[in-house]
Design goal:
about 850 residues, alpha/beta, Rossmann fold, 9-stranded mixed β-sheet, about 50% helix, binds ligand CBF
Length: about 850
């Protein structure tokens, strides 16, 4: 422990010259250092991408310092920690977010400009980390930002996919999927922890054994794969706290296929070893059902097993037994994807810690909380029992035992109501026996959360009614939120500056409730002028992007009307396109003097269709076909344009949202669990045209229906409308526009036939026909409002001013208090 006669730690303190400094000169030195020694380029010759790499490494150094201090602090204080388990995190870019949260954006920009680089250009060099599909995954990212900012002792755990969500390429209007090998150019934001690795077992058999005179089970695995940790520091804003997102990558274990080595088949043994890596290779695109996919089950168990080993190791470093486990550990299940962790924790406590069933179960039922993100019963995961038996034989036994105990307890409460017992059972009987993962999660969690109030009501009355009646106290909701750091400060710097100027403080970035003070200036003409200016700047940015991506020139005077989200029938992009066709048809049939009254529109649609979802892909093609006709019709000109933005992702959203005037959230009521896109638009002062679905109901409460364009059937009206659907006559306008598509007005007549069939002949499950008239009315109301610039600006300001409730800071504080029981643990500066 001595270096040159001095104690190691003293010598280290002597050598350490405090923390890295954040002034431009220090940053320049660091950037040049990384150019030379990390990127290995000459400091006299490096390009934008290399400068981005060097800058990122300089920022990462600062993150690491804070990360260390935070982890040290947590270790010292030993608070109850939250572990957020999620198979998906849609982090987007890290540089822009990190420099904002560290408070060094301007210093970086200055440092770079003196070196001859532009910060904005370098930030654009970074590709998106797209380790997730959509709302659920981006929500996880927003929640991590809030956890760090609010100083909660939390860690995220997930999978380090080598291929993120597919890239969407559009060829002739058709979606094609291309792999997203996002690690191709390296990833400066992660830290590989070669020494943090755990074996994860699969397959094999279970044997009886006796340990300390007690009977127990021993799982003899058939395959072992190594999970290696990659840490991604998540900095909080305005705090030193920097938490961790630990992602696991699969690597061959030393013991992997030892047999082949022994038999001398060296080359094949190596090839087989590499197969282990497949587990973390690729993110499953949301193809609506993963049922029966072995790799999916292996991915889930792989990340859960490694995470629990890591969590238990950390706990045992400090605690001698498991008595305090529930007081020190909260495990959050982000949907059913990590729910196998319930059986895994039970297995560890039973088979490895030998705590016995009663004690183990008492711990397990106190640590898990479960959030479900869907209302579609078909989206609730089920795993065939045969598959389970093969991949995780011991876990299946444990699940059966949990279910047996649950069924016995239930019988005592509800008697011999076999229909209900069978609905609530974790094991679904039938031709193919399945494990119902949602039922497992509800039975074993202390809390079940919905993601909006409307979602909670649906969980109670439609999706999990039996469980709600049994355990009403378990059910809660935490309306989703998004982080204002990413969705205003990073993505809309001009709006950010304007808000701070009018509020006289930047504190709203941490204390979002302050935004409400903007309300009092909503009709102030000076603010309105500046507000409009900001919108214009953002619209210009967006218009340039549209022209580059699609070649379409759009007018800045037009209303930019946006719908960006995954393509799905229930989200009703088709309703939007049919509305655009109607608008086009009306313009075409107008006299010249009538046309002068038309409010020019640029309709923007973007989103990826799940690769195996044919109807969603047809919707994309229809959008392109209609756009082709409209955009090339000189008779219509700037009065109407339709553009599809390809490869929608987090960074594209950062560009599109600030430049939008109106955004559409038009799901059939009762289908969107929450929706979070609407919250990002709201924060950016973009008006909403929406159905009263998911979290929109709460947005209406905040801003007032008079400041939005609400239309369509209400959640409770939908079932009756569906019953009546075949007898209801869709309005003539609807019949006419669908006919135009059917008759080949936009080409591809045969190809669109099945798409038209989904909304006609009594098959209009998502009620496009019955909502069409009120949709058109809402659109007309938006047109009228847009003409009155003063009113429109006032409504736009009110949107931002009313968005505080939809910050993920509020969501996280709610979870911390009502679900996880954790307290802030602030690392001193
Ligand atoms: O809760 C976050 C989001 O999750 C989904 O995207 C999901 O993946 N299930 C829902 O569809 C959204 O409604 C919800 O906002």
């Amino acid at each position: 422990g001595f270096v040159g006669g001095k104690k190691k730690t003293d010598r280290m303190f002597e050598l350490m010259d405090g923390f890295l400094k954040n002034d431009p000169v220090s940053l320049q030195k660091d950037i040049l250092h990384h150019v030379e020694y990390t990127v290995a380029r000459s400091r006299f010759s490096f390009d934008d991408f290399e400068a981005y790499q060097a800058l990122s490494h300089s920022v990462r150094d600062r993150l690491i310092e804070r990360w260390h201090d935070t982890q040290q602090h947590f270790k010292k204080k030993d608070p109850k920690r939250l572990y957020f388990l999620s198979l998906e995190f849609l982090m987007g870019r890290s540089l822009s977010n990190s420099v904002i949260n560290l408070g060094i954006r301007d210093q970086c920009a200055e440092a770079l400009s003196q070196l001859g680089f532009e910060y904005e250009v370098l930030a654009e060099q970074e590709g998106d980390a797209a380790l997730g599909n959509g709302g659920l995954a981006r929500l996880s990212a927003c929640q991590m930002d809030s956890l760090a900012t609010l100083d909660y002792p939390a860690w995220g755990y997930g999978l380090r996919y080598q291929y993120g969500l597919f890239r969407q390429i559009i060829l002739d209007g058709f979606q094609h999927e291309q792999p997203d090998y996002w690690l191709n150019f390296g990833n400066p934001w992660e830290i590989e922890r070669v020494h943090v690795s755990y074996p994860v077992k699969f397959y094999g058999t279970v044997k009886e054994d006796v340990v300390n005179g007690k009977k127990c089970k021993v799982w003899i695995p058939g395959e072992t794969v190594e999970a290696v940790a990659y840490d991604n520091p998540i900095p909080g804003y305005g705090t030193r706290n920097t938490i961790n997102l630990r992602l696991w990558a699969a690597k061959p274990s030393d013991g992997y296929d030892i047999e082949s080595y022994n038999t001398g088949d060296y080359i094949n043994a190596i090839v087989n070893r590499q197969k282990a890596e497949i587990i973390s290779n690729v993110l499953y695109p949301d193809d609506r059902s993963y049922q029966g996919k072995e790799l999916r089950l292996k991915q889930q168990y792989f990340f859960v097993s490694a995470s629990l080993q890591d969590i238990i190791r950390r706990f045992k470093d400090v605690h001698g037994n498991f008595d305090d486990f529930p007081d020190k550990v909260a495990l959050q299940l982000n949907d059913t994807h990590p729910s196998i962790s319930i059986a895994e924790l039970m297995r560890v406590l039973l088979d490895e810690e030998h705590l016995g069933w009663k004690k183990s179960w008492n711990i397990v039922k106190k640590v898990f909380s479960f959030t479900t993100h869907t209302v579609q019963p078909e989206a609730l995961e089920k795993v065939p029992v045969d598959l389970f038996q093969n991949v995780l034989p011991r876990h299946l036994q444990i699940i059966y035992d949990i279910n047996f105990a649950f069924m016995e307890e239930l019988k005592k409460k509800i008697g011999q109501d076999y229909a209900r017992l069978s609905r609530m059972s974790i094991v679904e009987e039938g031709a193919v026996k399945n494990i119902r993962v949602a039922n497992l999660s509800i039975v074993c969690s202390h809390t079940v959360n919905g993601v909006s109030r409307a979602h909670y009501e649906l969980l109670k009355t439609r999706v999990f009614t039996d469980f709600y009646e049994l355990w009403p106290e378990k059910f809660q909701y935490k309306t989703n939120g998004v982080t204002q750091r990413r969705w205003i400060v990073v993505s809309n710097p001009s709006l950010c500056a304007l808000i701070s100027k009018w509020l006289g403080t930047e504190s709203w970035i941490r204390d979002i409730d302050l935004l409400a003070r903007l309300r009092e200036y909503a009709s102030n003409s000076d603010l309105q002028k500046e507000w409009m200016m900001v919108k214009k700047i953002n619209k210009m940015r967006l218009a340039e992007y549209i022209e580059t991506m699609s070649g379409v020139k759009v007018s800045l005077d037009a209303m930019f009307d946006v719908q960006i989200k995954r393509i799905h029938e229930y989200k009703r992009q088709l309703l939007n396109i049919l509305g655009v066709i109607h608008r086009y048809d009306c313009i075409k049939n107008m006299e010249k003097n009538e046309r002068e009254k038309v409010v020019p529109r640029v309709c923007i649609i973007g989103g990826k269709a799940p690769p195996g979802y044919e109807i969603a892909k047809k919707i994309i093609k229809l959008c392109h076909a209609v756009a082709e006709t409209i955009n090339n019709d000189n008779d219509v000109g700037d009065l109407l344009k339709l553009v599809f933005i390809p490869d929608y992702n987090v960074s594209v959203a950062e560009l599109v949202i600030p430049g939008s005037d109106l955004s559409q959230h038009i799901s059939t009521a009762g289908h969107e669990a929450s929706g979070t896109g609407s919250m990002k638009f709201l924060m950016n002062g973009c008006l909403l045209l929406a159905t009263a679905d998911g979290s929109t109901n709460e947005i209406i409460e905040e801003i007032g229906a008079e400041n939005m364009f609400i239309f369509g059937a209400k959640i409770n009206e939908v079932p009756a409308l569906r019953e009546k659907d075949s007898t209801i006559k869709a309005p003539v306008q609807f019949v006419r526009v669908v006919r135009m598509v059917r008759d080949g007005y936009f080409g591809f007549k045969d190809y669109f036939k099945s798409l038209c069939d989904t909304v006609e002949n009594g098959k209009d499950f998502y009620l496009l026909g019955s909502d069409f008239a009120s949709y058109l009315e809402a659109q007309a109301a938006a047109d009228r409002a847009y003409v009155d610039k003063k009113k429109w600006n006032e409504m736009s300001i009110l949107c931002t001013a009313s968005s505080a409730r939809f910050s993920s800071d509020r969501t996280i504080e709610d979870y911390a208090e009502k679900t996880w029981g954790i307290q802030p643990c602030k690392c001193p500066f």
